Amino acid sequence: MSKYWSDAIQELVPYVPGEQPKDQQFIKLNTNESPYPPSPKVAQVLQSFDMDRLRLYPDPDASRLKQALADYYGVDRSCVFVGNGSDEVLAHTFMAFFRQPQPLLMPEISYSFYEVYCNLYAVDARRIPLREDFQIALADYDQPNGGIIFANPNAPTGRTVSLDEIEQLLQRNTESLVVVDEAYVDFGAESAIELTRRYDNVLVVQTFSKSRSLAGLRIGFAIGHPDLIEGLERVKNSFNSYPLDMLAISAGVASIEDDSYFRETCDRTIATREWTAGELAALGFRVLPSSTNFVFASHRYIAGAELMGYLRTRGVLVRHFSRPLIDNHLRISIGTDDEMRQLISTLEEHPEITRL
Ligand SMILES: *Cc1c(COP(=O)(O)O)cnc(C)c1O
């Protein structure tokens, strides 16, 4: 705190990211990164990058990356927005669309950055409870609003709503924008990108951080009607002309072009997830069905915070959220088969855990 701080920043409640340990002693299952390296095509592009080009500014429009995404998803380039990670895309989305007289609607349990942006941009929000099974009930969003946002699959629950349910919401909710954050969609859910071709009231946000193993490069994007994209460009060009650097643009294109590697690593993560969920259930965990690269689980009689601490002392990092309704749960990212075997054997060594 300093006397030079403005009133506005004194009231900010910043997001707290999962721990990034400085030494590599830990099995890191706490921030939903991919355990696999990026595509070899990405490595190739970065290794052969002409350093002399770094004297120059990058393309402010990142046109090559936008075109690659447009081709991949079968939309026009004018329907694509890119940013420095999807967190930045989301921030611009809040700024561009959600500062409205009516409150923004969002799930009570979801990505906690949404609340941070509400705070930053003075967006009034109403949190809609999840159903008892942690599902998002989109029927509950039929009320006056200045926008709707949810993650699908949701985080940290891993649960999904169907495209049908989303489409019905778009048909009922015609006076405000619906934003679907699809950070985890590549691990087994249906993307709403298809709906952006027929509805101008939906914006889909995705990231290269999870399924494309590129969290360190910071690439996110949004797909929607060109008028929505133009709104985002207005905010972006009032904030930072060059959010994506040259390396990110080139590597992003290379990643999109290597579809077989992308599908193979997603499939591997899905297979490991299903194995892990089965093992956790056998050790007395309740595991929610997941369409993501993590599982959300609670043990029948050991508290979540205690288990997280136990795992940490044994060199395994998982995420625990100290908030009502989910404070008994752990969010466990899916690592390699070997890492997940080590997680399971570490849990088996816990004195109160027995195999059912
Ligand atoms: C990880 C995550 C993001 C942010 O991803 P970046 O592109 O790395 O900024 C956005 N939304 C959800 C739900 C996430 O889990």
Report what the structure shows:
- It is a single chain.
- The chain is of the alpha/beta class and about 350 residues long.
- It has two domains: about 5-35 and about 260-350, Aspartate Aminotransferase, domain 1; about 40-255, 3-Layer(aba) Sandwich (Aspartate Aminotransferase, domain 2), CATH 3.40.640.
- The chain has twelve helices and twelve strands.
- A seven-stranded mixed β-sheet has the order 2-8-7-6-5-3-4, with helices on both faces. Strands 9-10-12 form a three-stranded antiparallel β-sheet, covered by helices on one side. A two-stranded parallel sheet has the order 1-11.
- The chain is globular and about 55 Å long.
- It starts with 6 loop residues before the first helix and ends in an 8-residue tail after the last helix.
- The structure holds pyridoxal-5'-phosphate.
Ligand list: pyridoxal-5'-phosphate
The CATH architecture assignment of the largest domain turns out to be 3-Layer(aba) Sandwich
Portion of residues in beta strands equals: 5-15%
How many β-strand runs? 12
> Which geometry do the CA atoms define?
globular
Order of adjacent strands in the largest pleated sheet:
2-8-7-6-5-3-4
Question: What are the SSEs and their pairings?
Answer:
Elements: H1 7-10, E1 27-29, H2 40-47, H3 63-73, E2 80-83, H4 85-97, E3 104-107, H5 113-120, E4 125-128, E5 147-151, H6 163-172, E6 178-181, H7 193-196, E7 202-207, E8 220-224, H8 226-236, H9 246-257, H10 259-282, E9 285-287, E10 294-299, H11 304-313, E11 316-318, E12 329-333, H12 337-348
Parallel strand pairs: 1-11, 3-4, 3-5, 5-6, 6-7
Antiparallel strand pairs: 2-8, 7-8, 9-10, 10-12
Helix pairs in contact: 2-9, 3-9, 4-5, 4-8, 10-12
The chain binds pyridoxal-5'-phosphate.
The site of pyridoxal-5'-phosphate (PLP) has 13 residues, from helix 4.
